[in-house]
User: Fold this.
Amino acid sequence: MLTKLVSETQVDALRVIIMAESREEEARKRGRTWTKGVVPFFAQKLIAAAKDNMSKDEVEMHAANAAMAAWLCDSIYDGVTAEAFTRSDIVFTLLPNGAVKYDRVRVSKV
Assistant:
């Protein structure tokens, strides 16, 4: 049986980057493995919020947390620039085994 939930929300990427500044030191201190693990943790919370039809504010809060984790991971450990991050969509996919796949997809400006 295949269940599909598609949900979309927008977060202000620049605001996420600014909010993440206070968490950068901890992400660096804890290392790549921990920081990469935070991304699916917050993405799972976002997916659960969407599935459970939580309020828009709650979904947006979880989306901002997941995006912040993605930014910290991408910028610190993969060298992604703020410009590249702000020109991307973030896609989280919950896999059948419960793992979360994360993709950053560059959007073209029309």
Remarks:
- The chain has a mean pLDDT of 88.
